[in-house]
Amino acid sequence: MLAISTDVEGDATAAYLAERLSKFDVNVSRLALGLPADSGIGYSDPLTLKRAINGRQAF
Questions:
Q1: How far apart are CA 3 and CA 14, in angstroms?
Q2: pTM
Q3: Are the C-beta atoms of 21 and 13 separated by less than 8 Å?
Q4: In the list 5, 42, 45, 46, which could disulfide-bond 10, CB 3.0-4.6 Å?
């Protein structure tokens, strides 16, 4: 599980590590991204909102 920052550098690092680890028999995952609990949607930036929408789960 990769717990890396969600900025551009973190995204690049996560992609690099996932690619490097792909030759091994391991599952690579990343912490969920999205809106924090107890915050209003109006305080969200566009990238966080997009990631929250793309990562939504059925209930």
A1: 9
A2: 0.62
A3: no
A4: 5
